[in-house]
Amino acid sequence: MSARRDNPARRFLPALLCAVALAGTRLHAQATADVATPSSAQTPTAADQQISFRQLLDTRQYDQAIAEAKRLVDVASQHAEAGEELQVALMNLAVAQYLSGDYLGAEASYVRVIDLVETSGRLTTPRLARAEAGLAATYYAGKRYDLAAKHFDRAVTLSRRSEGLFNEAQLPLLQKYADSLTEVGRLDDALKVQRYSLRVVERKYGATSVRYAMQLESVGRWYARIGSYDASRASLRRAIAIVETASGVNAPELIGPLTALADCDRRQLLDSSQRDLSSADDMRRSMFHDPMAPLGPTLSASTINSEGQKALERAVAIAGSRPDPSPVQLAGVRTQLGDWFQSQKQFDKALPQYQLAWQSATGQSVGGQPLAEQLFGRPVLLHYEPPLNWDRYFGKPPGEVMVRNAAVEFTVSAQGRVVDPKVVADGGDPKLGALTEKAAQSARYRPRFENGLPVETRGVRLDQPFYVQVEDAAPAAAPAAAPAAVPAQPPPAGT
Question: Which domains are assigned to the chain?
């Protein structure tokens, strides 16, 4: 199966943004945390350092936590018999380095733990699985997806070896494993991982459980991401039906699959390759056919539009009707409903939803950061149509193709439109800059808000990669000269 190349803006189409922003940290903490209670072999000073490290980590003082962890490593390294203590100290250091964004440091620490465990011969220790998972998460955060996939595979194998073939603890690893495989274009393998995740949940909770519906939602979101919209819709509709049967038509658990269904519909409506919806994409439908989620008939654009909007409106109604409505949840779903209208250039309908979302978000924090700032503190790219054939030579060997990056800067108006784009980088070819400047006019943003009102934002930058053949690139036009390494997937445009 060949990889579907994402629109450069595709990864910026938000779901519940505040939740997504924390997903990587939660996975990493679950998969890698190895903070142990100091043993009697440690000195009182080392025990005090261990407690201090925990406090610094809990309060997000990562630089100080790294310094404390390094002292713990130094203390443990002085004792030849302190193998366990050294491994724990290194795991602590790796976690702090990861959370601080020092991925190279975290990589080195995890590799050292793995070497120590393998040298000791204790290949069945859970710490080895945690270290492999931590290393994989570090590569993933650093966008080194090929290495991430390799080490997620090892972590999952070790988890199954120690906890059983269908243990639930492997689910967070499987999700990131599938994401990594997707990033490098291994869609067949990613689909197998997604289906296996469903089997794990089905074995423990059953195929009619709400927990199974949640996993179906995850699969449905993945299908939408790769452009298999019919399979996504089938999975999400089934998830909705399961929740309705198990918990009722107003169950809060419906909000997830409803917003996922709307996201699928919006992606398809904005996907330039799907503009002609009058005929089914038979090859793609068969390619991703899943007997667990039978495909329905191909829908018209108007039907898709109606379905997506109604799904979001229903999610908003459910979130608001709860006896104790969650301001965070309300802010999330109203923001998505605003994004729905904004993506269709209906700012008059988007604005009231954004303002209600702002009101719900004000005074709330997620992950220690103000929610209103996360949602409305900067323009958020919702839609962008890249230049035609920007990825024409994607997939060719690195020796035959290179990546040239063009960029434009502009003002995002209070209505989310691009105003006065100017080329600030042309990748060594003025034509690329001109193409990017023209394409930037298609971009649509959720505008930045101040005091509950949308405002313009100057100096917004959008980066556009181009895959060009090496022989077509004039050497003098690019002072950096040597062909750039070609990533497995095109990088996203916009930030």
Answer: 381-477 (3.30.1150.10)
